[in-house]
From TrEMBL:
Taxonomic path: Bacteria, Bacillati, Actinomycetota, Actinomycetes, Pseudonocardiales
Coiled coil: none
Superkingdom assignment: Bacteria
UniProt source species: Prauserella marina
GO molecular function: DNA-binding transcription factor activity; transcription cis-regulatory region binding
Protein's UniProt keywords contain Transcription: yes
Name of this chain's protein: DNA-binding transcriptional regulator, AcrR family
SUPFAM superfamilies to which the protein is assigned, alphabetical: Homeodomain-like, Tetracyclin repressor-like, C-terminal domain
Keywords: DNA-binding, Repressor, Transcription, Transcription regulation
InterPro entries: BetI_C, Homeodomain-like_sf, HTH-type_TetR-like_transc_reg, HTH_TetR, Tet_transcr_reg_TetR-rel_C_sf
Amino acid sequence: MGDVMGGGRAEDGKRRVAQALTRVVAREGIAGVSVRAVAAEAGVSGGTVQYHFSTRVEMIRYAMEWTSAQVEQRLAAVPRWGEIREWTREILLELLPLDVERRREHAIWLAFVAHAATDPMLADLKRRTNLKLNELYSRIVVARRGGSVSATGAVRPAPGSEADAILLQSLLDGLSLQLADMESEEAAEAGPRLLDRYLALAIDELPGQESKI
């Protein structure tokens, strides 16, 4: 029991340091990350930081993985029942920087992604995250078009759905950059409106239909 509890406390300590690191990154970027800066942000000693992470690179990798996991947990918490176009829209909105927390999260992720160019392990995490997102976008496109998912969870897309999933991912990435440059209130108003416009024009509209927007 003592080992289990000790292990839990150690993991809590690592998460506390990771959370502090993300706050430093949000303010100062990756260049601002140091044992001293993270320790001060976490309210612990430099020795405590080094106890959990032997190197700066290890600390950054863990924080990037932790940030990615937080996003996954938030997306998984979105209810997936009722009107399909409503809950799929809610999932997509969760990926846009529409409030203080998500704007901070977006800035942190961009900093990590830029740093991934110098770290093969971060580059691999970026690649795996993009693959998961592409699978999510594929499922959303199929669901909104009345497609099907097999008993094993495999998506059965209609022709063109794969390309449209890539376009949807590109739209979310680009729209996030635009919204991040807006004031918070403007982003909160514009984000849902622009997403709805894109979904109506490019995802929901069936071939031969005329847009009503």
